[in-house]
């Protein structure tokens, strides 16, 4: 944002309601998009006292949406939101021998992404089918 | 032990939540590894692909309904939560009041303006319009210094109420006596600047989705003169950014008639449900001649049959009557979600759902990256 600001010199008598037009070409990537910011930030932390097969992860800026949807195949998996006014969600994972908690969590992410692809694909197909049913 | 395959009938019965007069049974999902001895319930993409179905019921611009069948409640709920709180839309964030002599206070007027939904060219809203970062006073950024044509939409509302000429002073109907006695959302004017004209002009201009939202009432001599800045935001920040009203789901109801319900009872049974759920059919000769069917000697009488359980509201009215005791079983299908999405008007309802799937996927992608770069790993 700061580089944009330097190229922008609003007139001195611009009222507070006026918005200056950017005179530079807007970059394609949206630097303030929360989804893009998410890629930059380090939002997962492993909590102290964790072993390879039993670990607690702290997720920042996540809530029930992901906490409940994420279910890796493990001996135990649970999530909690320690305090409602803090944007923090903790996931506890205990795995069986042969796989680690981090691997299980990664598989959870992969499975959830695959699932999203299938849902989108089937949804689009059903929508097209619905259109052709309406026309006939 | 090799995984054994139980009968389909038994598997289907496991998907049913029981609904009794006062209680519910078998609510939680049980299809996870380790719950059933000898059965493999580990999650598998190809298994999911085979079982998962989407069925559309109707798909209008502002109102869509479809079923997601064969998905876990946690995932269906994630989509619903994302629809409400994490899909961006445009709403008024700042209101600059130059003049307001109406009876509505400035802050109340600003709140009302914030809740007005706006639409515009979709590609412009999606690709051209970016997120606005709040100015950071620590970096010496002044208020408004982060506002540009690609992240702020300027709107204005200038309106004054006057008496209509030639109308009697004793006229009490404000519609006849005054010009602009009522201020509507359609009176808000979009003021494009910079490169906004390229993306938001003609039918793509920024306008309210509901032109007849009443914002204020005026009397002669009163006026409102405000300028507004609309930005892109999400529902978890403020409900005014939520693109749906509402997004919800319910489970498919099931009605099983266990013993025949015939004659007057059938008519009463039909009235226990909303219209179209239960139908009446004549008992056939074949059924009447079959021994042990419960229809013996009722040839030609009306019997109750289940026509469309989806229309049921699960009021449980039929369970209150003695004559239907042990004759009917109510339930819901645990993994059949009937979604209803009503868009506020910026996006089509079906697009919104696809967007929610995309948001969940992006979330996973970002966090997966975060996981690999985690310290102490």
UniProtKB/TrEMBL annotation, chain A:
Q: What processes in GO biological process is this protein linked to? A: transcription by RNA polymerase III; transcription elongation by RNA polymerase I
**Record's protein name:** RBP11-like subunits of RNA polymerase
What span is annotated as the signal peptide, if there is one? none
Matching HAMAP family, A to Z?
RNApol_arch_Rpo11
Question: Can you name the source organism?
Answer: Venustampulla echinocandica
Q: Which GO terms describe its molecular function?
A: DNA-directed RNA polymerase activity; protein dimerization activity
What Gene3D superfamilies does the record point to?
A: RNA polymerase, RBP11-like subunit
Q: Which residues form the DNA-directed RNA polymerase RBP11-like dimerisation domain?
A: 55-121
Keywords on record: DNA-directed RNA polymerase, Transcription
Q: Which family does it belong to?
A: Belongs to the archaeal Rpo11/eukaryotic RPB11/RPC19 RNA polymerase subunit family.
Q: Which GO terms describe its cellular component?
A: nuclear DNA-directed RNA polymerase complex; RNA polymerase I complex; RNA polymerase III complex
TrEMBL record, chain B:
Q: Which GO terms describe its biological process?
A: transcription by RNA polymerase III; transcription elongation by RNA polymerase I
Q: DNA-directed RNA polymerase RpoA/D/Rpb3-type domain: from which residue to which, for each copy?
A: 63-370
Q: Which keywords are on file for this protein?
A: DNA-directed RNA polymerase, Nucleus, Transcription
Can you tell which superkingdom this protein's organism belongs to?
Eukaryota
GO function term, MF aspect, one: protein dimerization activity
The protein's location, in the record's own words, is:
Nucleus
Query: Which GO cellular component terms, listed alphabetically, does the Swiss-Prot or TrEMBL entry include?
Result: RNA polymerase I complex; RNA polymerase III complex
Major subcellular location class: nucleus
Q: Which Pfam families match?
A: RNA_pol_A_bac (PF01000), RNA_pol_L (PF01193)
Q: Which family does it belong to?
A: Belongs to the archaeal Rpo3/eukaryotic RPB3 RNA polymerase subunit family.
| Protein's name according to its UniProt entry | DNA-directed RNA polymerases I and III subunit RPAC1
């Amino acid at each position: 944002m700061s580089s944009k600001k330097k190229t922008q010199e609003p007139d001195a008598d611009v009222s507070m309601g006026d918005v200056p037009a950017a005179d530079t070409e807007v970059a394609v990537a949206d630097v303030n998009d929360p989804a893009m910011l998410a890629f930059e930030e380090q939002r997962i932390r492993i909590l102290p006292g964790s072993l390879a097969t039993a670990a607690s992860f702290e997720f920042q800026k996540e809530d029930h949406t992901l906490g409940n949807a994420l279910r890796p195949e493990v001996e135990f998996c649970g999530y909690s939101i320690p305090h409602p006014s803090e944007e923090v969600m903790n996931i506890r994972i205990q795995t069986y021998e042969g796989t680690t908690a981090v691997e299980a969590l990664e598989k959870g992410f992969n499975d959830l992404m695959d699932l999203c692809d299938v849902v989108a694909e089937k949804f689009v197909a059903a929508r097209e089918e619905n259109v052709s049913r309406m026309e006939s | 032990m090799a995984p054994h395959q139980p009968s389909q009938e038994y598997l289907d019965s496991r998907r049913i939540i029981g609904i009794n007069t006062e209680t519910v049974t078998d609510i939680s999902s049980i299809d996870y590894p380790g719950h059933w001895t000898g059965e493999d319930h580990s999650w598998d993409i190809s298994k999911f692909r085979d079982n998962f179905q989407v069925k559309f019921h109707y798909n209008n611009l502002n109102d869509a309904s479809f079923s997601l069948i064969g998905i876990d409640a946690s995932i269906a709920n994630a989509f619903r939560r994302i629809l409400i709180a994490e899909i961006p839309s445009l709403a008024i964030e700042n209101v600059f009041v130059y003049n307001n002599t109406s009876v509505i206070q400035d802050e109340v007027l600003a709140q009302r303006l914030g809740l007005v939904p706006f639409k515009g060219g979709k590609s412009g809203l999606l690709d051209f319009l970016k997120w606005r970062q709040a100015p950071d006073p620590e970096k010496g950024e002044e208020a408004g210094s982060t506002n540009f044509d690609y992240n702020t939409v300027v709107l204005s509302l200038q309106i004054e109420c006057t008496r209509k000429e030639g109308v009697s002073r004793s006229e009490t109907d404000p519609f006849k006596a005054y010009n602009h006695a009522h201020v509507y959302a359609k009176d808000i004017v979009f003021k494009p600047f910079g490169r906004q004209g390229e993306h938001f002009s003609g039918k793509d201009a920024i306008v309210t989705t509901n032109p007849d939202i009443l914002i204020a009432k005026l009397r002669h001599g009163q006026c409102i003169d405000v300028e507004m800045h609309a930005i892109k935001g999400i529902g978890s920040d403020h409900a005014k950014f939520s693109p749906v009203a509402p997004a919800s789901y319910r489970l498919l109801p099931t009605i099983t008639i266990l013993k025949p319900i015939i004659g007057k009872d059938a008519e009463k049974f039909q009235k226990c449900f909303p219209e179209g759920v239960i139908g009446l059919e004549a008992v056939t000769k074949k059924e009447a001649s079959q021994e042990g069917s419960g229809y013996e000697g009722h040839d030609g009488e009306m019997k109750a049959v289940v026509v469309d359980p989806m229309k049921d509201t699960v009021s449980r009215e039929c369970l209150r009557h003695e004559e239907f005791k042990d004759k009917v079983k109510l339930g819901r299908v645990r993994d059949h979600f009937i979604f209803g999405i009503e868009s506020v008007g910026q996006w089509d309802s079906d697009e919104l759902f696809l967007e929610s799937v995309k948001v969940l996927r992006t979330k996973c992608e970002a966090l997966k990256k975060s996981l690999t770069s985690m310290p102490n790993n």
